[in-house]
């Protein structure tokens, strides 16, 4: 007879690997409300890993709670769920905040006899106590209010009667029994919650181990979280065959790896060199089909190099005819763990649309790497600020911008927009472009580039917001170390705090109907109509 067995119920911090399971749990728990997307859950975890807890029972996700740190100025004042949660991404997390704010708590309806909610609340309390926070705040659903609205004089009276024991509410009652107390009512907290009339009780748990008069003031430690980045400014050159092209690419991968780089970045449309050995001039459609024929070999080569050289490869971009028949401009990102990730260009340029009939993609999301989440914006995409903001909401701290420009004016559009994205999102932006020319290959007649690694403009960073830059129009490899911990400091304590100071009460980014299919597959973030509370 065995003397021990594996634990059937586990409560732990959520990780990016749990995203799919959590999305399914939320859909089961909130029947009738639109669920979180994978991007939202990923953002919650990436923005504050310590604050997200998941419960698994016999290997199935049965409970989840999401939390972040906020200052009293934000947490204890009137707000709604969209505003406080950063549109569901948890992007308002402030590492100097003295309160833990809970903006999600859900339990599988079929597993409510296991005290999952109690266990998740206990994990939250333990976190607040360990971090010496003032306590926990959240907006609590009050699902009994709509049924009792004729018996009470408004939502405040309803809460008071529940506290006095004259009325029963399953959610408020549970939270009161766990040591939370109401400090008011939040109107229009979650309009989709019709059972609560859109209201929420503003609940507080005060940490008994911290005296508010003597509570510590939190600062962000000036840690070092170093990442080494290499960006390739690639010379367009004729090649004899696919193998010769790979040898040229592998040379730069090898050199970047010798410098112990974590990432190496190649330019947009760098695979157009593969058209240089065609014996006749190809029409745009013929050229795309020839390039598409190389896709599988390209992906295998990038994957092999990433693993052999122990480096993450941002594979520029490669025009490809995808399974649905559309022609897309796709970045293939090969990570050193052997995984491959495809990211489509969202905004084709007029030139791409005219000559190549390239269509824009309809999904954008971060890529989880061993150096944290990163994002890819292919050239023109960097000129649309809402895309970068969405990736940063999901937790990206580095944005890679492979580009292909033919003139200084075109290059500077990408360069200036890349610098703007670094400032407004307090992140690093890495540009990689082509130089030289490739006769008889469309889109490669002439090239202009000055690849660079850009930073926010504040005290911890380079004086001009440039960590490193190449000499313009020569083939070279540019390498720099960046400190991701500097971003954490700047976002919380910098001279300006672009992320924290957004007016969530006035505006947000929502995706339109075209992305509905991708949203249904959990690939796209959405705006309102999501669960939330507690």
TrEMBL record:
<dbReference type="InterPro" id="IPR016181">
    <property type="entry name" value="Acyl_CoA_acyltransferase"/>
</dbReference>
<dbReference type="InterPro" id="IPR000182">
    <property type="entry name" value="GNAT_dom"/>
</dbReference>
<dbReference type="Pfam" id="PF00583">
    <property type="entry name" value="Acetyltransf_1"/>
</dbReference>
<dbReference type="Pfam" id="PF00795">
    <property type="entry name" value="CN_hydrolase"/>
</dbReference>
<dbReference type="GO" id="GO:0016747">
    <property type="term" value="F:acyltransferase activity, transferring groups other than amino-acyl groups"/>
</dbReference>
<feature type="domain" description="N-acetyltransferase">
    <location>
        <begin position="9"/>
        <end position="208"/>
    </location>
</feature>
<dbReference type="InterPro" id="IPR036526">
    <property type="entry name" value="C-N_Hydrolase_sf"/>
</dbReference>
<dbReference type="InterPro" id="IPR003010">
    <property type="entry name" value="C-N_Hydrolase"/>
</dbReference>
<protein>
    <recommendedName>
        <fullName>Nitrilase/cyanide hydratase and apolipoprotein N-acyltransferase</fullName>
    </recommendedName>
</protein>
<feature type="domain" description="CN hydrolase">
    <location>
        <begin position="227"/>
        <end position="484"/>
    </location>
</feature>
């Amino acid at each position: 007879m065995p003397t021990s067995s594996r634990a059937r119920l586990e409560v732990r911090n959520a990780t990016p690997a749990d995203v799919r399971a959590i999305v399914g749990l939320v859909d089961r728990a909130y029947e009738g409300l639109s669920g979180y997307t994978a991007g939202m859950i990923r953002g919650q975890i990436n923005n504050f890993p310590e604050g997200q807890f998941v419960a698994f029972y016999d290997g199935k996700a049965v409970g989840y709670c999401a939390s972040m740190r906020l200052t009293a100025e934000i947490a204890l004042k009137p707000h709604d769920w969209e505003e406080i949660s950063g549109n569901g991404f948890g992007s308002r997390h402030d590492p100097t905040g003295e309160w833990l704010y809970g903006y999600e708590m859900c339990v599988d309806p079929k597993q409510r006899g296991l005290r999952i909610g109690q266990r998740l609340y206990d994990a939250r309390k333990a976190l607040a106590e360990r971090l010496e926070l003032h306590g926990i705040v959240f907006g609590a659903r009050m699902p009994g209010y709509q049924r009792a609205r004729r018996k009470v004089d408004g939502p405040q009276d309803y809460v008071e009667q529940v506290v006095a024991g004259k009325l029963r509410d399953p959610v408020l009652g549970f939270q009161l029994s766990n040591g939370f107390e109401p400090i008011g009512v939040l109107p229009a907290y979650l309009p989709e919650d019709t059972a609560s009339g859109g209201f929420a009780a503003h609940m507080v748990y005060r940490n008994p181990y911290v005296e508010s008069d003597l509570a510590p003031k939190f600062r962000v430690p000036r840690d070092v979280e170093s990442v080494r980045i290499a960006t390739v400014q690639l010379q367009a050159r004729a090649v004899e065959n696919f193998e010769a092209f790979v040898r040229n690419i592998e040379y730069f991968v090898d050199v970047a790896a010798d410098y112990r780089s974590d990432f190496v970045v190649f330019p947009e449309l760098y695979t157009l060199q593969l058209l240089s050995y065609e014996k006749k001039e190809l029409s745009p459609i013929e050229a795309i089909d020839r390039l598409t024929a190389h896709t599988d070999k390209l992906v295998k080569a990038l994957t092999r190099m990433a693993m052999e050289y122990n480096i993450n490869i941002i594979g520029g971009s490669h025009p490809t005819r995808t399974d649905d028949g559309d022609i897309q401009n796709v970045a293939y990102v090969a990570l050193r763990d052997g995984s491959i990730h495809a990211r489509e260009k969202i905004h084709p340029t007029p030139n791409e649309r005219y000559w190549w009939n390239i269509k824009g993609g309809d999904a954008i999301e971060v890529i989880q790497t061993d150096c944290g989440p990163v994002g890819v914006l292919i050239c023109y995409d960097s000129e649309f600020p809402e895309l970068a903001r969405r990736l940063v909401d999901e937790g990206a701290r580095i944005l890679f911008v492979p580009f292909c420009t033919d003139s200084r004016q075109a290059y500077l559009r990408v360069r200036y927009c890349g610098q703007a994205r670094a400032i407004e999102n307090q992140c690093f932006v890495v540009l990689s472009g082509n130089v030289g020319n490739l006769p008889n290959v469309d889109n490669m007649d002439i090239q202009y580039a000055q690849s660079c690694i850009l930073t926010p403009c504040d005290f911890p960073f380079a004086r001009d917001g440039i960590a490193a830059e190449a000499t313009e129009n020569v083939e070279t490899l540019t390498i720099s170390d960046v400190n991701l911990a500097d971003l954490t400091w700047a976002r919380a304590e910098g001279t300006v705090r672009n992320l924290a100071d957004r007016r969530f009460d006035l505006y947000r980014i929502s995706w339109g109907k075209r992305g509905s299919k991708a949203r249904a597959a959990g690939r796209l973030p959405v705006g309102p109509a999501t669960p939330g509370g507690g």
